[in-house]
Design a protein that fits this description.
Blueprint lengths: L6 H4 L1 H7 L9 H15 L7 E11 L10 E14 L2 E12 L7 E10 L1
Antiparallel strand pairs: 1-4, 2-3, 3-4
């Protein structure tokens, strides 16, 4: 899906033999793409007539998502700033975690703009 053909993502035998994790891992951007689905589940913005994705201020992948892992996410709104003309900038932090893993798989600071 990501187009990344790096062996650590697609070659099970080589990843098992040579990789630092002993198995294949998900591509970081694939993990990041899960944030949009989690966003709808975690933060309800339906009361606003319009919301747009403005981008990310910071994205980090502290730990891998190993093949077959179950993931979950938490989210918090870290700032809301009025922009004028009925618009606000909303900063959100998403933390994607893997089951039975101490470090998060992804920490992403997202910005959206909503019309009030």
């Amino acid at each position: 899906m990501t187009g990344d053909r790096n062996w650590i993502h697609v070659d099970v035998e080589r990843a098992r033999r040579e990789g630092p994790y002993g198995e294949t891992i998900a591509h970081g951007n694939l993990t990041l793409s899960l944030v949009d689905g989690f966003r709808d589940e975690l933060l309800s913005l339906r009361e606003y007539p319009l919301g747009i994705n403005y981008g990310y201020d910071r994205v980090r992948w502290p730990a891998p998502v190993r093949a077959g892992s179950r993931v979950r996410a938490t989210a918090e709104i870290t700032a809301v700033d009025p922009l004028g003309d009925g618009w606000c900038s909303v900063a959100q932090r998403f933390v994607v975690e893997c089951e039975a893993q101490a470090k998060p798989a992804c920490v992403a600071d997202s910005l959206i703009r909503v019309r009030l």
